Amino acid sequence: GHQGWSPRPQRSPAQGPEAHCRDHRRQVMAAGRRGLSTAGPATFPKAARVRRRADYVAIQSQGTRHFTRHFVMVVRRASEGLSRLGITASKQVGGAVVRNRWKRACREAFRHERGAFPNVALDLVLIAKKDQQPPSVAEARDQLRSALRRFQRPP
Length: 155
Prior knowledge:
Blueprint (H helix, E strand, L loop, with lengths): L16 H17 L19 H10 L1 E4 L3 E7 L6 E5 L7 H18 L8 E7 L8 H16 L3
Parallel strand pairs: 3-4
Antiparallel strand pairs: 1-2, 2-4
Protein backbone atom coordinates (compact mmCIF):
# COMPACT_ATOMS: atom_id res chain seq x y z
CA GLY A 1 0.00 0.00 0.00
CA HIS A 2 0.88 3.66 0.07
CA GLN A 3 3.16 4.94 2.75
CA GLY A 4 1.14 6.26 5.70
CA TRP A 5 -2.08 4.54 4.66
CA SER A 6 -3.61 1.74 6.67
CA PRO A 7 -3.87 -1.58 4.82
CA ARG A 8 -7.49 -1.93 5.99
CA PRO A 9 -10.41 0.51 5.67
CA GLN A 10 -10.97 2.60 8.79
CA ARG A 11 -14.23 3.38 10.57
CA SER A 12 -15.47 6.97 10.42
CA PRO A 13 -14.42 8.99 13.46
CA ALA A 14 -16.89 9.45 16.31
CA GLN A 15 -15.84 13.08 16.62
CA GLY A 16 -14.69 15.81 14.27
CA PRO A 17 -16.07 17.20 11.02
CA GLU A 18 -16.68 13.81 9.41
CA ALA A 19 -18.84 12.66 12.32
CA HIS A 20 -21.40 15.40 11.55
CA CYS A 21 -21.66 14.28 7.92
CA ARG A 22 -22.23 10.68 8.96
CA ASP A 23 -24.94 11.64 11.48
CA HIS A 24 -26.65 13.96 9.01
CA ARG A 25 -26.59 11.30 6.33
CA ARG A 26 -28.20 8.83 8.76
CA GLN A 27 -30.99 11.31 9.60
CA VAL A 28 -31.71 12.02 5.94
CA MET A 29 -31.78 8.32 5.08
CA ALA A 30 -34.09 7.54 8.01
CA ALA A 31 -36.47 10.38 7.10
CA GLY A 32 -36.53 9.18 3.48
CA ARG A 33 -37.42 5.65 4.58
CA ARG A 34 -40.29 7.03 6.66
CA GLY A 35 -41.57 8.98 3.64
CA LEU A 36 -40.83 12.38 5.19
CA SER A 37 -39.45 15.27 3.23
CA THR A 38 -36.13 16.57 4.53
CA ALA A 39 -36.51 19.81 2.59
CA GLY A 40 -37.62 22.95 4.38
CA PRO A 41 -40.50 25.20 3.34
CA ALA A 42 -38.26 27.33 1.12
CA THR A 43 -37.23 24.71 -1.42
CA PHE A 44 -37.10 25.03 -5.19
CA PRO A 45 -38.40 21.72 -6.60
CA LYS A 46 -38.47 20.90 -10.32
CA ALA A 47 -42.23 21.48 -10.40
CA ALA A 48 -41.58 25.12 -9.43
CA ARG A 49 -39.26 25.74 -12.40
CA VAL A 50 -40.00 26.71 -15.98
CA ARG A 51 -37.85 24.17 -17.79
CA ARG A 52 -38.90 23.86 -21.44
CA ARG A 53 -38.24 26.41 -24.16
CA ALA A 54 -41.88 26.17 -25.31
CA ASP A 55 -42.98 27.25 -21.82
CA TYR A 56 -40.61 30.25 -21.87
CA VAL A 57 -41.91 31.30 -25.28
CA ALA A 58 -45.56 30.92 -24.21
CA ILE A 59 -45.06 32.93 -21.01
CA GLN A 60 -43.18 35.69 -22.81
CA SER A 61 -45.78 35.97 -25.56
CA GLN A 62 -48.88 35.81 -23.33
CA GLY A 63 -47.59 37.40 -20.12
CA THR A 64 -47.65 40.92 -18.70
CA ARG A 65 -44.29 42.70 -18.44
CA HIS A 66 -43.11 44.59 -15.38
CA PHE A 67 -39.86 46.53 -15.41
CA THR A 68 -37.67 46.78 -12.31
CA ARG A 69 -34.17 48.13 -11.81
CA HIS A 70 -32.43 44.77 -12.26
CA PHE A 71 -34.75 42.70 -14.42
CA VAL A 72 -37.82 42.52 -16.62
CA MET A 73 -40.46 40.29 -15.08
CA VAL A 74 -42.99 38.56 -17.33
CA VAL A 75 -46.03 37.20 -15.45
CA ARG A 76 -48.96 35.09 -16.56
CA ARG A 77 -51.48 32.94 -14.75
CA ALA A 78 -50.30 29.35 -14.61
CA SER A 79 -52.28 26.54 -16.13
CA GLU A 80 -51.34 24.20 -13.27
CA GLY A 81 -51.20 24.33 -9.47
CA LEU A 82 -47.72 25.61 -8.54
CA SER A 83 -46.18 28.99 -9.25
CA ARG A 84 -43.12 28.52 -11.46
CA LEU A 85 -40.00 30.58 -12.07
CA GLY A 86 -37.80 30.80 -15.14
CA ILE A 87 -34.67 32.96 -15.35
CA THR A 88 -32.99 34.25 -18.49
CA ALA A 89 -29.54 35.84 -18.37
CA SER A 90 -27.83 36.26 -21.76
CA LYS A 91 -24.10 36.59 -22.29
CA GLN A 92 -24.61 40.35 -22.66
CA VAL A 93 -25.20 40.40 -18.89
CA GLY A 94 -21.70 39.01 -18.24
CA GLY A 95 -19.67 35.86 -18.02
CA ALA A 96 -20.81 32.59 -16.49
CA VAL A 97 -19.95 33.66 -12.93
CA VAL A 98 -21.99 36.88 -13.21
CA ARG A 99 -24.95 35.10 -14.84
CA ASN A 100 -24.95 32.45 -12.12
CA ARG A 101 -24.93 35.16 -9.41
CA TRP A 102 -28.01 36.69 -11.07
CA LYS A 103 -29.77 33.35 -11.15
CA ARG A 104 -28.89 32.46 -7.56
CA ALA A 105 -30.22 35.78 -6.24
CA CYS A 106 -33.45 35.46 -8.26
CA ARG A 107 -34.04 31.84 -7.22
CA GLU A 108 -33.46 32.68 -3.57
CA ALA A 109 -35.85 35.65 -3.76
CA PHE A 110 -38.51 33.47 -5.41
CA ARG A 111 -38.10 30.72 -2.81
CA HIS A 112 -38.66 33.16 0.03
CA GLU A 113 -41.44 35.19 -1.59
CA ARG A 114 -43.48 32.26 -2.88
CA GLY A 115 -45.76 32.40 0.16
CA ALA A 116 -46.59 36.07 -0.52
CA PHE A 117 -47.94 35.32 -4.00
CA PRO A 118 -51.67 35.65 -4.64
CA ASN A 119 -53.76 32.53 -4.18
CA VAL A 120 -53.56 31.91 -7.91
CA ALA A 121 -50.56 30.10 -9.42
CA LEU A 122 -48.29 32.25 -11.59
CA ASP A 123 -45.65 31.56 -14.20
CA LEU A 124 -42.80 34.07 -13.92
CA VAL A 125 -39.86 34.68 -16.21
CA LEU A 126 -37.17 37.04 -14.96
CA ILE A 127 -34.95 38.51 -17.67
CA ALA A 128 -31.71 39.99 -16.36
CA LYS A 129 -30.95 43.50 -17.59
CA LYS A 130 -27.51 44.15 -19.00
CA ASP A 131 -25.39 47.03 -17.64
CA GLN A 132 -26.48 46.15 -14.07
CA GLN A 133 -24.59 44.36 -11.33
CA PRO A 134 -26.28 41.20 -10.01
CA PRO A 135 -28.80 42.16 -7.32
CA SER A 136 -28.40 41.11 -3.72
CA VAL A 137 -31.03 38.67 -2.50
CA ALA A 138 -32.70 41.48 -0.51
CA GLU A 139 -32.89 43.72 -3.62
CA ALA A 140 -34.27 40.87 -5.73
CA ARG A 141 -36.89 40.11 -3.05
CA ASP A 142 -37.97 43.77 -2.87
CA GLN A 143 -38.27 44.08 -6.65
CA LEU A 144 -40.14 40.78 -6.94
CA ARG A 145 -42.53 41.80 -4.15
CA SER A 146 -43.25 45.23 -5.68
CA ALA A 147 -43.83 43.78 -9.15
CA LEU A 148 -46.20 41.17 -7.74
CA ARG A 149 -48.10 43.90 -5.88
CA ARG A 150 -48.61 45.67 -9.23
CA PHE A 151 -49.79 42.41 -10.74
CA GLN A 152 -52.34 41.90 -7.95
CA ARG A 153 -53.93 45.33 -8.40
CA PRO A 154 -57.25 45.33 -10.26
CA PRO A 155 -56.93 46.69 -13.84
